Amino acid sequence: MRRRVMVIGLDCADPRQSFGRLAHACPNLAALCRRGEHGRLRSTVPPITVPAWTTMMSGVSPGELGLYGLRARVPGSYQMRVVTAADVLVPRVWEVAARASRKAVIVGVPQTYPLPQRQGVDAVSCFLTPSASSPFASPRSLEPELRRLFGEYKMDVPGFRSLDRARILRELYAMTAQRFAIAEHLARTREWDLFMVVDMGLDRFHHAFWQTWNEDHAAYDADGPFRGEAERYYAFVDERLGELLSLADDDTAVLVVSDHGARTLEGGVCVNEALADAGLLALPLRPARPTRLDEAGVDWDRTVAWAEGGYYARVFLNVRGREPRGALEPGARERVRDEVARLLRETRGLGGRSLDTRVVRPEEVYPSCSGAPPDLMVFFGDLAYRAVGSVGHGAHQIAGCDTGPDGCNHDWDGLYVLARPGGGSATADRRIEDVGKLVLDLLDVPDGLRPAALGGAA
C-alpha cells in the first residue's frame, strides 16, 4: 500500500507555549501528542525562518547552503539582498519524492518563491512572494482557481512590527484562515502522497503580542486591550489544525513541526555603535538619530569590521583582497577576529547587566561554508537581545528593536509531533536536519533516489 505523509508547519511554534502554558487552548495538538511522538526540535544556527525551513527539507546545514539569514551579501559589494528559492541549490524533500513518482502538494513553505514548474508537484508560494500580483502557484493554471475561491493571496502580514495591533490581529486571522482553507481545498481535490503546508501566523503573532501574556516582558500589561488574545489565537490555529487533520486517514503519517521557538526580547545591542567606538568602524559623521548603516556614510577605506543586525549579528571583517575596499591585511584577520569576539562577548546589556553572549565562527558550527559567510556570528544574551545594526543611538544598548515594535526574539528549540501508523506515544527530542530524511522514510522513498543529506548513499 502506498504511504502518505501530511506535514503541517507552524512557524515559530514554541514548545513551552504549545506543550505548556497554552496547551489548554490546543486540544487537537494535545490529542495528536497522546497518540504519537513529540518533543523539542533543535533549530539551525541561526534559528531563523530562512534558513531553518530549507535545512529542514534538505538536510543540508545553513553553511553548506550559503544561507545565513533572510538576506545575503551581494557579491563584490557591501550591500545585502533578500534571498529566494533561486538560492537553494540542493534538492528538497518534495523534489526527491517526485523522482520516486510520489505526488506532492506544497503550500506556503518558506523560500519557495519563485516556484519552479515541476511535474508531480502542485505548489503555492510563501511569504517571500513580492506582491499579490506576483505569480504564486504552480502550475500557473492553479492561480485563477485559488483567486476565485479565496480571493487575493495573503502571503504575509505586512508591517507586523508596528503599533497598529488591531489591524495586525485582523490580518493575522485572515491570513491563517485563508492559508488553511487553501490547504484543505488542495488536500481534498489533488492527488498527493506528500502534503505540506506552513502557516506564518504564530511567528507574526509572537512578534506583535508576546508582551500581552508573558509576565517577564518589560511591557507586560495584565489589563491591556489584548489580554486573553493569546488563548484565542492559539485556539483558532488549533481549530484549523484539527480541520486539516480530519482529512488524514489512519494510514497517513502526520507530522506537525516548527522551525524555531520564541523568547522574551529584553533589548538590543547596538553592535555597530560598539565597533565604531572601538575604532573598528569608521563613521566620519556620526548620525544624530538612528540611521541604517548603508545610509550612514561609512568610510570603508578605514573600516576594519562592520555588522548586519537582526535576530543575531553577522560580523564581517573588511579584508583586503576579499572586500571591494578592504582595509585589513589578510595576515591580521585571525588576531582581529579574536579581538572583535572578545569585545562583543563582553558587551553589557541594559543597566550594565552582563549577558550570556555566544560568539561563534561559522567554520566551528558547519561542515563547510558557501556563499559569503560572516567572520563571526554573535547571539547577544543567547538571543535575549537582538543585534541592532543601525547607528546613531548614542548608546550600546536600546530597550527594543530598531526595525519596529517587537515583543520577542527567536529561540533555539521549535517543536514536532509525529503520529504514524503503528507508532506509539513517546517523548523525545530531535534535530531539524533530520526531519527531511524522516519524511522520505515515511514515504518509503528508496535510498538510491535520495541525496546523501536525506539518507541516500554517500
Explain what you see.
The protein has 458 residues and is α/β, with parallel strands linked by helices. The protein has 13 helices and 21 strands. It has helices at 15-21, 27-34, 49-58, 62-65, 93-99, 142-150, 165-189, 201-209, 229-245, 271-277, 333-345, 362-365, 435-443, and strands at 4-10, 37-42, 71-73, 80-82, 104-107, 121-124, 137-138, 194-199, 252-257, 261-264, 267-270, 305-308, 313-317, 358-360, 376-379, 385-388, 397-398, 408-411, 413-419, 426-427, 430-431. Strands 1, 2, 5, 6, 7, 8, 9, 19, 20 and 21 form a ten-stranded mixed sheet that branches. A four-stranded antiparallel sheet has the order 12-13-15-14. A hairpin with a 4-residue loop joins strand 12 and strand 13. The chain is globular. It starts with a strand and ends in a 15-residue tail after the last helix. The model has no long low-confidence stretch (mean pLDDT 97).
Give average pLDDT, whole number.
97
Q: Give the biggest sheet.
A: 10 strands, mixed
Could you tell me the radius of gyration in angstroms? Answer: 22 Å
Q: Poorly predicted ranges (pLDDT <50, ≥5 residues)?
A: none
Report the β-strand fraction as a percent range. Answer: 15-25%
* Structural class category: alpha/beta
Instruction: Please report the number of helical segments.
Output: 13
Per DSSP E runs of 2 or more residues, the count of β-strands stands at: 21
